[in-house]
Amino acid sequence: MIADMLKENDAEYFIMHATSRDANFLYATRFKTYDPLTYISGIDGTEILLVPEMEKRRAERESRVKEIVSLEDMGFKEKLKKLNDAKIAFLEILVSVLKEGRCRRVLIPEELPSFISFELMKHFDVRVVRNPFSKLRIVKNSGEIEKIREVSNAITSTFKWLIENFRFKKCEEVRRAIDTKLFSAGYLAENTICSTGKLSADPHELGKGQIEDHLIIDIFPKSMDHGYYSDFTRTVFLSKNDDLEEMYSAVVAAQEEALKMMRDGVDAKDVHERVKEVLSSHGYRTEKSEGFIHSTGHGVGLEVHEEPRISEQSVILRQGMVVTVEPGLYYKDVGGVRVEDTVVVRKNDCEILTPFEKFIRLY
Q: Which of 24, 92, 173, 285 is a Cys-bridge partner for 168, taking CB atoms 3.0 to 4.6 Å apart?
């Protein structure tokens, strides 16, 4: 795909400069790094990872990129002594590598640091493109699916433990318990949603204070080993609230209809429209900022929110895509409810990676 994109744009090279916190860089290199490194992909299939000397051996062992070139091999120390500026010394090396490859035109992603972009513009015809690895990541292979399944199992196991040992009074206590339990098992959960009361009418409200009638619990950790995420939400009822429980029954019904549609070849837009139809049939309409106010789902992988989206845009679902199905309803005078599962799109149906009972009442 990279070579095809270069050919279409009459370019010789595509460049990324990032850390492994960037999902596209991690996917391209499979190398964990906390300092930014440079990945170069050529139209002839050449791939180069430019690294400091201290990272060379590790990159040769762990990265999927075959050609590892250290900056020191390219004369970085000498240039640094002469120029007294590490960034300028690095830029000289990068430009020289590209010129050795007879580069005329280079493609750069939107997120490339500006100091690199401006320097490249002095020497080459530079075109900004959407990072092609975002598209390559959409359909997962079997190995990626197993990694997401592993995280999914950790989530449902943690949630089961939470429900069986629920003695919490405040949202912060629930969040701390979830995050600590997952961390001890090798998963990093950040901004876990444990939202209650009327504040839960904001879908991404983290939650704070005394737990009221219900609690939206949205858990989306990543593995600290391989970096893949999963995503899961349930609405837990701590005391009877007819309005909230009726809302929740509607979103569960909407999710069930959506799950029936999930298979290879289906337009995600039709899934989203079906969810809206079901919610409307239960008497819940969306007006301005209330009701069903977000998409039906999103892709999950090396980012918790990635392509594809299950929304008003037309996207054909393909076997191997991993997405969430998460209808919700939100009203400022009542609060919000949501149910969410991560699923794999299969040829004739979908596989739910986060199976768990939908209705949880602790009263």
A: 173
